[in-house]
């Protein structure tokens, strides 16, 4: 194999991204944030990009460029990034049908795509030469030629896009959670009633609650679900320790996890935690619901 030429603009730019983000995690996070911000779930209740209209999809392409700019610390004020002394034009498309501005000719394209349904994303670099684009009228944007597509250097090919939590719930569960069109509190109660033993991030919480800060809804849900033995753990107080003792994933700041507990029997072999002097274990489906702890 012929070694890559360090002077090649694609090689130099790819090396810059590898140095600053070896696993390219920031790209996935930026795409997740862009999708969530355009869906605007806390105001609209939406969670599926299929509900975006044409104008919103156009805005999403611009939003991806803005969020990636912030993620990598590129200065604002231009439509391109300055990376390794090269002009890099960010372009996003769900389908890979990227369009490129006329001024991008001779520079680089940072080509991004995302598949929310399958939680995948890809990012590639392309030197935008005349061979890499289809000929067109001077006033129109370029589209990639077959030669251009073959020349894409993939930084990430089918990487893991952070999950769209609500989109990937079983449809029946999602319908139960979102059924009440009036009360955000009832929707949050249903979320923790039906989604247990897995961490719930802040963004779907805000979408279900229809408010910016869902923390109060969580506090109230603890009271409402106590009689069913459901506890809701966050990142503060004794909660991380309780989660570890019950062998649950530990929520980080801005996330929560619910589980149903019952008082431990003297012969119980399940992992246990002590709350307010009482030993609790995670309930089995066959365990009769019993009230959970009042204060934890």
Structure overview:
With 296 residues, the protein is α+β, with helices and mostly antiparallel strands. It has helices spanning 9-20, 25-39, 41-44, 54-72, 146-150, 171-178, 184-194, 202-209, 215-225, 239-245; strands at residues 81-83, 86-92, 99-100, 108-115, 120-127, 142-143, 153-160, 230-233, 257-263, 272-275, 278-282. The chain folds into 2 domains: 9-160, 3-Layer(aba) Sandwich (ECO RV Endonuclease, Chain A); 171-282, Winged helix-like DNA-binding domain superfamily/Winged helix DNA-binding domain (Arc Repressor Mutant, subunit A, Orthogonal Bundle), CATH 1.10.10. It is 34% helix and 20% strand. The strands form 3 sheets. A 5-stranded mixed β-sheet has the order 1-2-4-5-7.
Count of alpha/pi helices:
10
Shape: elongated
Mean pLDDT: 93
Relative strand content: 15-25%
Biggest sheet strand line-up: 1-2-4-5-7
Number of domains: 2
Low-pLDDT runs of 5+ residues are none
Based on CA atoms alone, the radius of gyration comes out at 24 Å
The major sheet is characterized as:
5 strands, mixed
The helicity comes to 25-40%
The CATH architecture of the largest domain would be 3-Layer(aba) Sandwich
Distance, first to last CA: 61 Å
Q: Write the CATH homologous superfamily of the largest domain.
A: DNA mismatch repair MutH/Restriction endonuclease, type II
Structural class: alpha+beta
Q: How many strands in all?
A: 11
List SSEs in N-to-C order: HHHHEEEEEEHEHHHHEHEEE
């Amino acid at each position: 194999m012929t070694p890559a030429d360090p002077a090649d603009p694609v090689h130099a730019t790819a090396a810059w991204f590898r140095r600053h983000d070896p696993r390219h995690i920031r790209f996935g996070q930026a795409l997740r944030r862009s999708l969530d911000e355009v869906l605007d779930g806390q105001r609209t209740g939406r969670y599926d990009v299929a509900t975006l209209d044409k104008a919103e999809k156009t805005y999403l392409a611009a939003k991806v460029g803005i969020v990636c700019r912030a993620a990598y610390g590129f200065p604002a004020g231009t439509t391109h990034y300055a990376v390794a002394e090269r002009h890099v034009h960010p372009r996003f498309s769900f389908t890979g049908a990227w369009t490129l501005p006329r001024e991008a000719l001779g520079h680089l394209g940072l080509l991004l795509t995302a598949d929310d349904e399958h939680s995948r994303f890809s990012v590639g670099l392309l030197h935008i030469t005349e061979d890499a684009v289809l000929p067109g009228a001077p006033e129109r944007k370029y589209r990639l030629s077959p030669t251009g597509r073959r020349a894409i250097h993939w930084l990430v090919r089918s990487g893991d896009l952070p999950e769209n939590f609500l989109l990937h719930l079983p449809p029946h569960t999602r319908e139960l959670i979102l059924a009440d069109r009036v009360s955000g509190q009832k929707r949050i109660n249903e979320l923790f009633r039906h989604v247990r033993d897995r961490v719930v991030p802040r963004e779907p919480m805000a979408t279900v609650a229809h408010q910016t800060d869902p923390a109060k809804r969580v506090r109230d849900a603890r009271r409402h679900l106590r009689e069913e033995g459901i506890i809701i753990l966050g990142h503060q107080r004794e909660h991380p320790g309780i989660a570890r003792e019950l062998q649950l994933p530990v929520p980080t700041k801005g996330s929560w996890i619910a589980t149903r507990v019952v008082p431990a029997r003297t012969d119980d072999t399940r992992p246990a935690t002590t709350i307010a002097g009482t030993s609790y274990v995670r309930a089995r489906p066959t365990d009769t619901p019993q009230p959970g702890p009042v204060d934890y």
